[in-house]
Amino acid sequence: MSGNTNVRELTEDILMELDRMEENFIKAKANQQEPDFFQTVKPYADQVFETVGLWENTVKNWILSEKPKYIHVQQIDSTVENINMVAVQCFYPDTREKRFKGMIQSIRYVLNDTISKNL
Q: What predicted TM-score, i.e. pTM, was given to this entire model?
């Protein structure tokens, strides 16, 4: 049962991180300045990649053991890829807003679905 709690906690952590990414995106759009990749983007993205990697392994193990309905490993793979993309894109003012927000919405859907199936 503790595995389920871990899935839920990690998923909630990533949801909070998505809020930070949206804040970064709003600031980047307002400032219209390119960030310093090695000072700002890379350290943040590395931290997100690490958290997302842990979440990915934990959720995939949960999917294999619990077999929740309508959550599949391929969905998790796509979500991980999308999270890693927006973690970098959120710093750049030339990121297309519609695409960015669509990806965030898609990520949130999978994360919230994971939480709802993990009660």
A: 0.92
